[in-house]
Design a protein that fits this description.
Blueprint (H helix, E strand, L loop, with lengths): L1 H30 L4 H18 L8 E6 L2 E2 L4 E6 L3 E7 L4 E5 L4 E5 L5 E6 L4 E7 L4 E9 L1
Parallel strand pairs: 1-4, 3-9
Antiparallel strand pairs: 1-2, 4-7, 5-6, 5-8, 8-9
Copper (II) ion binds next to loops.
Length: about 140
């Protein structure tokens, strides 16, 4: 038993030594001067990610999620000053047509293809946003003078 344990310990030591050698070879290959171009490529790649997160502060459109043919959380109320932008996004697991009354704009949405409305608020009043086929109101848009 003792001897077996000793042998397996030796085998383990050899295995560890082998792993160390492999790591040393990998480290040597990776750290050779030839690796400099990939490092240089990596630096610019990180920069676009930083700029990609910067536009986020621009207010995201209101997000309306449709479930079982109705808006989750009820009819969304949006208030926009005249001259501003009516912005909302509708996500639906089923194909639907989203209709912004008053401005009379219809756009389709489907699973994996949400629709984003970004409409200049030129007309004042209170307007219904409807799932056209279902006749279901999903939002109430107030454009105030
Ligand atoms: Cu409608």
């Amino acid at each position: 038993m003792l001897r077996l344990r000793h042998i397996s310990r030796t085998a383990a030591s050899i295995a560890v030594a082998a792993v160390v050698v492999v790591i040393a070879i990998i480290a040597f290959v990776a750290l050779r001067p030839g690796d400099e171009p990939p490092v240089a490529q990596r630096a610019p790649a990180a920069a676009p990610q930083q700029t990609a997160t910067q536009p986020a502060p621009a207010r995201a459109p209101a997000r309306i999620v449709i479930k079982n043919g109705a808006p989750v959380g009820g009819v969304r109320e949006l208030t926009v000053p005249q001259g501003g932008a009516i912005r909302f996004r509708v996500e639906s697991p089923e194909p639907v047509t989203v209709h912004l009354h008053g401005y009379d704009i219809e756009q389709p949405a489907a699973a994996g293809a949400p629709v984003v409305f970004n409409v200049e608020a030129t007309i004042t009043g209170v307007f219904e946003v409807e799932l056209e086929e279902l006749g279901v109101q999903i939002a109430k848009v107030s454009v105030e003078p």
